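Lab notebook: predicted structure, single chain.

Context: the supervisor wants predicted structures on file for every construct in the current expression panel, including those that have not yet been purified. This is the next one on the list. No modifications to the sequence; it matches the entry in the shared construct table.
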Amino acid sequence: MRSVRARAALGATVVVAVALVGAGLAVLLVLRANLTDQAGLQAEVAAREVAGQLALDVPYDRLEMRKEEDHPVQVTDEDGRVVAVSKDLEAISGTGTEQVEPVPSPAAESSTGSGGDGSDDDGHDDDDGDDHGGRSIPGRGEVDAGDPDFSNGTATVDGDTADYRFASVRATTSAGVTLTVHAGAPLAAEQEAVGTVRRAMLIGLPVLLLVVAGVTWLVTRRALRPVEGIRREMAAITASEDLSRRVPEPGSRDEIARLARTTNETLTALEASVDRQRRFVADASHELRSPIASLRTQLEVGAAHPELLDVPGAVADTVRLQALAADLLLLARLDAGERPGRTTLDLGALVHEEVSQRTGDRIPVAVSVPESGAFEVAGSRGQLARVIGNLLDNAERHAERTVVVSLRAQRGGVVVAVTDDGTGVPPDERERIFERFVRLDDARTRDEGGAGLGLAIARDVAARHGGRLTVDGAPEGGARFELWLPSAG
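Prediction complete. Output recorded below exactly as produced.
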């Protein structure tokens, strides 16, 4: 199942089905329990009515059993013998005994007074002076006030067999005989109600699930329609390799709209990166062409006329070619995401070391580093030395008479400032000079100027070290480059 719509519809349908089945079972169980409790209450009322009569020593054949067609009654003694049943009761189950024919019980009969004649054991009349004409006066027993016992069973009354809920209540006669009254209440209403609800669920559940599946399918299809538009546009961009195209952005503010915006932002960044790479390759090819062509020309002339070979010029072209190759290699490593080392070094000592190696500079470099100060930073010693060297090369190229490099601590970091007294950088060009292969002085020759990679390399290295490189105007009128790096601590 590869379609998201199909998976969503199936998942929603399964979840709803499980929820509905669980809810339906709970409803059926609660409904059945409530109706069964009602039937049990009716059975208990009928059983207690008969038990009350037994407690008053009413004879079995005179027991009043109301609605005997709805409440079959069976009375048993302590030995489990049936002593009385309701009218037209033909069969019963679930009460402990299936007998429906009363069996005489001497103890029970004597307790009800059915066999008493008003005489004592030796046949003489009772002469206690009573005025009841020799009739036996019923005594008074009691009915068990505790919760009755409940059970389910069946009973056949006048040829009709049905399920019943039986309640068993105990009664004690005045003679101390314990009898148990089993009275039933029909479960037809409970069965009919549960069956009706079950049938309604069996019919309604599939219909409801079909509705849920259909609605989920339609809603998911509508929600994913913009995604399909994004996919088609991305496929077209891939086929045409035209990174200037953009995917459609829906007017909603949901996740799909954010996906479209993020996709367009990614395409914009990718287009800029590809354009930058293309310009980089074109500029690198152009920059490499000049020293290679010059070196080839000098070697060809030297091969034909050894006396005309310009060895210093060939060496200069070779050095320039080597430096350009090194810059391109470093840029490639930076673009590849190479992380600098985390060696702790003293930036003041590194500045002194770099300045001490510049013995052939046109203008001497003045160094201003406080003696009492900790200027430790973490990073790559070689890359940071390259940054300082590039800044000094740029200052030497544009300075008139002075180049100054200074250090100071600032906001949890160290600032290296390189200042010259040249023409400076116009405010609207101060960000462009950090682009690759950018030279503001178009009139100067390539031999006098660099390839336009030094400042770009310096800013990239500074960013890789968690720092920044900015340019501003110097008090002397030239340019002031400031490199900020976080302290090692």
